[in-house]
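Justification of resources, computational component.

The compute hours requested in this renewal are based largely on the per-chain cost of generating structure records like the one below. Each record pairs the submitted sequence with a full structure-token output. That output is archived, and it is also reused by downstream analysis tasks.
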Amino acid sequence: MLFCYICENIIKIFNTMTGIIIIIIIVAVIIAWFIGVQRKLVSKEELCKNAMSQIGVQQSSRWDALTALAELTKSYNEHEYNTIKDVIGQRAAITSGSNAKAADAQEDIMTSVLSRIVAVAEQYPELKANENYGKTMDSVNLYENQVRTSRMVYNDTVTAFNRIVRQFPDSIAAGIFGFREKEYLQEIPAKAEMPKMNV
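The structure output for this chain reads:
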């Protein structure tokens, strides 16, 4: 009788211990999953920030080239030069913390400046024939292509990030940790209407 009582208690303890161990394992797996998803989201978000920062670097270089082009227009058309300088004054730095709307707004401003400069060059063939104008315009085109590439990379990284944020079950962890979908950079409609920049 005593033996049966001891055996029953051992079985109860074993069952309780097994249950506790199973619960601990389940909790550990859930915690490990949450940590894994959080690390994946942070990694993808950092890639998005890096891609936005690269856009900022390329845009800054392009701003410098546009400013140099604006200076070349000064001796040809003072009024247009002042207008261009006023528009250039609206520039803002794009950093890793910037959002898609800010980057798109800068693209709009740059497009406006470039179209004004090209219009001045069309009015003054000697400006268009200027060697410095040609070299600087080549730089603008180079930076334009680099910005375009950086924008594609950014949108690709946003796609990867948004996929994690939206897909179940990772979306649960994303919501708990406060990760939200990021906006994509938009195609700039004015770019399609831009005059050719070849000199």
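The helical segments are 2-73, 78-88, 100-123, 125-129, 131-166, 170-177, 189-192. The first helix runs from residue 2 to 73.
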